[in-house]
Amino acid sequence: MSIKIHLGAWRSVFAVPSMVVDEGLKFADGVKLKVLLYVLRNADSDLSLEAISKSTGVNVTDIPEALDYWVNMEILQKSDRVYSPVNSDKEIKETKAQDISPKEKPEPEKISQAVNEQKQRFVVTKPQKPDYVFTSQRLAVDEELKMLVGEAQTALGKTLSNSDVATLLMLKDTCGLGSDVILMLLQYCVSIDKRNMHTVEKIGISWADEGINSVEAADSKIARAHHSSRCFSVVSSAFGLQNAGSPTKKQLEYSSKWVGEWKFSSQMLREAYERCVDTKGEVKFNYIDGILKKWEAQGIKNPEDLKASETAKSKPAPKQNTSYDIDELEKIDTLDFID
Fold it and tell me: Looking at per-residue confidence, does 326 or 183 come out higher?
């Protein structure tokens, strides 16, 4: 009797580290997985970016970033443009062996900490949007994504392109924002008259970095943003800034402090502004902050307080009385000689 097993597709297999699934999938999109699987399948081959792009459909410019993702995840390591597998367990043991002297015994807590540090080393700095094919496939089967796209189109007043949908999918999957948080983000962008996906993407990534991943956190963030915007409007009006445009983060912080915390009026803001321009020849928020900080410390809140303070400083110091009583001087001399 003869036995024959038809392996079919299993006749040719290649290894994929468990870490790819256990730790890499959380932040990986279709582009990163495509590139990794292709290079693992073609290990020991000289692969050009063009060859990888042709076989995977991934844009040539996105391939280096995808490979760097797996380097950061410690699935691959890179040396002189050559990628090779990383034996993470071995490296952790070698690291612990260097840190522990021969007389010391490794403590379970230290070992666990070392492993956790290895796992948490990767930080997403530039999330990557999924490609056209992956986005289309998800949109066809993901009802929640369909709902999100419909709500986004209504809020923004336009039909979303595939790239726009990819942005929403990135914020949802890669950045970890819930659909309800993304809807609040869209409504906030509309409220500040920024109806474009570039702004949605930029603010969404910043929210993810700050851990704004709940409705409550998003509501608080939006309230603070509106408050800062109102404070900056007061400042820009007091300074006479025409077409101030989008304020910087630092300008918003200064404005919130001057108006929201210190409660300076437009009149006092204008006074500080004019003193800054007279001295520096231009508007310098840090210099104006120094002026207002001094007034705040001295309890100067209005023009009357400022005038009274400066008047008191301008008064000459009282002259010291230098006249002497002759009789008193004679008494002092007499007492000195008696002793």
Answer: 183
The answer on 180 and 251 residing in a single domain is no
Q: For residue 305, is pLDDT > 50?
A: yes
For residue 21, what are the domain limits? Answer: 10-119
How many CB atoms lie under 10 A from the CB of residue 91? 13
How does pLDDT run across 233-271, given as a tens digit for each residue?
Answer: 999 999 998 766 678 889 999 999 999 999 999 999 999
> pTM of the entire structure?
0.55
144 in the same domain as 114: no
pLDDT of residue 301: 92
- The values of phi and psi at residue 77, to 5°, are -130, 150
Q: Which of 97, 119, 141 is the last residue of a domain?
A: 119
pLDDT at 121 over 50: no
Cα–Cα distance, 141 to 91 (Å, whole number): 41
Residue 117 parent element (H or E): helix 108-119
| H/E stretch holding 207 | helix 197-210
Please tell me the predicted confidence (pLDDT) of residue 103. 44
Whether the Cβ atoms of residue 159 and residue 153 lie closer than 8 Å to each other = yes
Q: Which of 214, 216, 219, 250 is nearest to 232 (CA)?
A: 250
Q: Residue 112's closest CA among 96, 98, 88?
A: 96
Q: What share of the chain is helix, strand, coil (3-state, %, to 5)?
A: 65, 0, 30
Query: Terminal CA-to-CA distance of the chain, rounded, Å?
Result: 139
